[in-house]
Amino acid sequence: MTTRRMFLLLMTMAPAALRSGVGHASVRDDQMWDAVLRNVEGFRAGATRLGLTGSWDRPAAPIVVDIRPPAGEDVVGAMEREIGEPIPPILLQFYRDVSAGLEIEWLLPGRRVVMPEGWSSVIYDLVPPAPFREQTSQPPNPVEPTINAGHIRFFLDEIPMLLRNMEMWKQNFRDMEATVGDDPGARLHYQRYRQWWDRAFPLGLDLGGNHIGMDRKDEAGRLLWLDHTGGDAPGWFIDHTLPEFLLIQSHLGWTGFRGIEFNFFRDEAAEPGERERVYIEEHAADGEFAPLPPSTYLIDDRSEAARQWRRWLALPEPG
Question: How far apart are CA 126 and CA 148, in angstroms?
Answer without folding.
Answer: 10
